[in-house]
Amino acid sequence: MLKIYVSLLAIITAMALVGCGSGSSSSTGGGSKVQVALNQTSVSVGANGTTQFTATVTGTGNTAVTWSVDGVVGGNATAGTITAAGMYTAPSQAGTHTVTATSVASPTQTASAQVTVTASTSVSISVSPSTVTVSTSATTQFTATVTGSSNTAVTWSVDGVSGGNSSVGTISASGLYTAPSQAGTHTITATSVADTTKSATAAVTVNVVTVSVSPTSATVLVSLSTPFTATVQGTTNTAVTWSVDSVAGGSSSVGTINTSGLYTAPSLPGPHTVTATSVADTTKSASATVIVDANGLSVSPATTTVAPSGTQQFSTTVAVTWSVDGVSGGNSSVGTITSGGKYTAPFAIGAHTITATSTANSSTTGTASLTVINSSPRAVLTYHNDDTRQGAYAEETVLTPANVKAATFGKVFSYTVDGQIYTQPLYIPQVNIGGTNHEVVYVATEQDTVFAFDAKGLQSAPLWSKSLGTPVPKNDVEGVSPVLGITSTPVIDITTGTMYVLAEATGGSVSPFKLHALDIATGAEKFGGPVYVTGSVPGTGWDQVNGTITLESSCYQRMGLALNPFNNMIEIAFGHCNHGWVVAYNKTTLQQSAIFNDTPDGAGGGLWAGGGAPAINDVTGELYIITGTDVNDPPSGYNDAFLRLSENNLSVLDFFQPDDNLSLLIPNDADLGSGSNILMPDNSSSTPHETIGGGKDGNVFVVNRDDMGSFSTTSNNVIQTLQTGTKQFDNIFSTPAYWNGTLYYHSESDVLHAYSWSAGKLTKLAQGSMVFQVHGATTSISANGDSNGIVWEIDNTSIGTGPAVLHATDASNVSNELYNSSQSGTHDQAGIALKFTVPTIAGGKVFVPTANELDIYGLLP
User: Fold this and answer.
1) C-alpha distances in Å from residue 43, one per residue of 57, 75, 82, 92, 102
2) Where in the chain is the domain with CATH 2.60.40.60?
3) CA–CA separation, 145 vs 126, rounded Å?
């Protein structure tokens, strides 16, 4: 037994001796030969540096190994550590260590390598440049210098992200940095491969390149020159290239421009575009408009409006003297203008002509048209806020999408009135009444009463009220009941402190209609008013008498009154009678100055527009309205038409009628004039001047105001037609609102729709979720300039039986309703609903007219 034991021990010892050695090992047992080999057997690495070992095992299907350093599996902090994948990380102290790979397959074999760890103080790194500014999406080269090691390789990162990413910018293995598309500051880091504890950084600032050109518009005579200057920001490379009408450097036909920005006009007149493009970022450019004038001077701006006592800077490209309405330098009545072209308006509204006369040649002149409009800071003086009827109150600094919610916003007080309020509330932030300044809101009722209330609710009684007569008994199935008095929204002339109101009353010896001019501080009649509103025109219509058509006493005067600042006329539109009428009265003398009937040789054409008001081009004084129709009205005249009326005599200058007018609109009472139109901003010379509106069939028409399209039975010669609403008929009974590039419509039995307006056309943007049944709603906007937009609407689905419901929606996302007055039970409940009512938003308050009270909403105390 002893001999056998000794023999076995000798065999085991011999087998163990075969496995000893370095670099590689093998076994020659009865099966396959197992061998282990390393990719490197001797290596030098800096303290805390890393190096990759690879073990190759042959002679067995199991190629796995275990790693150890100085006999310690996985190593330790003193000898260095090694991962299961063979990545060795050196310790912080210099020295020599052995890395060993041992095969897992039996019999085990090993292979070893010697690692010399050098002192860490020998490795240093720097990055050049250390700071740099670069434009978005541009590139810049970084260089890393490594000393103290023969291994000069580095890895790159941006803000701690290896290689960077699209948000912070990317960097290649060679150090080429590509900036992101957004501005910001970032850190570039180069890390030594030899010693990963050693790194260096550089700071990079990414700027958005912007280009601006000054002046943005200029006028120059043919063959003469004018300079432009380009300013480039966001990059140290401020160079630009110049072009004219997309031709680099221009040409003889469009004008030339040199590298310094000096533009020389061609020999023929016309408009051209000068463009400066950044050399640092060729996607960034800015343009200016240049008008080449052959016949005289051009004044910029050529047409404009200004508030009473406001200012406007005019300019030309040559030295001139200035006059206003033929008065050199102007005067207090027409406005004054300095030698530098700065115009200061008088307080009175009206149209004026600015004339520039060349100092070199007095026979060369240029003119601009200017109108002092009816405007006052923070005031709401007319239907839908201004003469364009766009419905945006952009001076609201209190109400925001963040605080208009049930927890912080609601009904703060209300005023009881004596009848239905169909008029939109009007608002003036400061009126001296009885020696005290008040914030005042004005409403009028079907009982022929005008009320002035304290808008802050500081007193429960009216500041003043005025009865304008006894209203006419009326039981209108459409809602006006039991009397008909004041239905249309008045208009206030802020420069004379006068409110103009059309009241219908019994007992009139000439007509039931009277135009009143009331003092906004007392309610007293002014200018010898009131005056009867009457009129007649020649015609052969069915109601003619001796060839004359007369304004009927049975009419409704539902459309809001308009004050034309161009000629100081009060424009009054009538409907719900045999014809559509517009009558104009001088605002001071109260004498009739013009009258228009849209179907004198037929019938129809009523003007009611869901309570809207005529839109006015304040520079030209021209009126824009939409007419209606009744079932089986004859096609003669201007039934179902967009009309552009003369500022002087109200004659038709242009019109548009839909191609289905005869077959669809008239037979089905689907009148176009159930809705009202607005004038879109004139903010681009490349976009036609437009008016937008629609009617019962749900078609919204985008109409060129300068060439409206007339009538064709085969096509609509308009810029665009799009469908809104969900019903065959009875869709649009409202005026749309426009704000910040978006048009808002709310049709009957439908949700709120938002349309983007770009390049003169509408595109569906988004929609809300709240369906309004009866007549939809006229939308109004509150905003602080271009921010904090809120869409306000009144849901009158419960007309005559239940409360009106005020809704507030985020104007930037109409699917997000912020608030409605039914959310807080009866606390915020409004008065009885009426049709066609429009909220007024001003001074941090929302004024809601109802059948029995004026409700005022605001931030809760």
Assistant:
1) 21, 17, 14, 16, 19
2) 21-27+34-120
3) 5
Give the three-class secondary structure for 455: coil
* Stated length of the chain: 861
Strand order in the sheet with 699-704: 678-679, 690-694, 699-704, 720-723
How many angstroms separate the CA atoms of 265 and 225, rounded? 6
CATH number of 123-207: 2.60.40.10
Predicted model pTM: 0.69
Computed on alpha carbons and rounded to an integer, the radius of gyration of the chain in Å comes to 41
Is residue 109 within 8 A of residue 18, CB to CB? The reply is: no
In the sheet that holds 176-178, the strands lie side by side as 139-141, 176-178, 169-171, 164-165
Cα distances (angstroms) measured from residue 641 to each of 124, 703, 733: 83, 11, 15
| Lookup: tokens for 209 | 């390149």
Query: What pLDDT is attached to residue 7?
Result: 36
Nearest to 161 by CA among 180, 143, 183, 136: 180
Please determine, looking at this structure, whether the domain spanning 21-27+34-120 carries the CATH number 3.40.50.1000.
no
- For residue 535, give the nearest of 517, 548, 516, 554 by alpha carbon: 548
- Residue limits of CATH 2.60.40.1080 in the chain: 210-293, 303-372
Token pair 């209203």 is found at: 471
Peptide bond into 681 cis (omega under 30): no
Largest Cα–Cα distance in the chain? 153
pLDDT at residue number 661: 84
Q: Per CATH, which fold does 303-372 belong to?
A: Immunoglobulin-like (2.60.40)
Predicted local confidence at residue 295, as pLDDT: 62
- List of the chain residues with pLDDT < 50: 1-22, 27-31
| Residue 7 parent element (H or E) | helix 2-18
- The label of the residue with tokens 């006006």 reads 480
* Alpha carbon distance 265, 256 (integer Å): 7
May I ask the CATH architecture of the domain 392-859? 8 Propeller (2.140)
How confident is the model at residue 2, as a pLDDT? 34
Distance separating alpha carbons of residues 857 and 399, to the nearest angstrom: 11
Class of domain 210-293: mainly beta
Per-residue pLDDT, 225:
86
Q: Write the DSSP symbol of residue 176.
A: E
Residue 340 CB: number of other CB atoms within 10 A? 9
d(CA 22, CA 25): 7
Beta-carbon neighbour count of residue 32 at 10 Å? 13
Q: State the pLDDT at residue 49.
A: 83
Please list, in sequence order, all residues whose beta carbon lies within 8 angstroms of the beta carbon of residue 216, skipping any fewer than 6 positions away: 288, 289
Cα-based angle 333, 335, 341 (whole degrees, multiple of 5): 160
How much helix, strand and coil, in percent to the nearest 5, is found in the chain? 5, 45, 50
All CATH 2.60.40.10 domain ranges in the chain, comma separated: 123-207
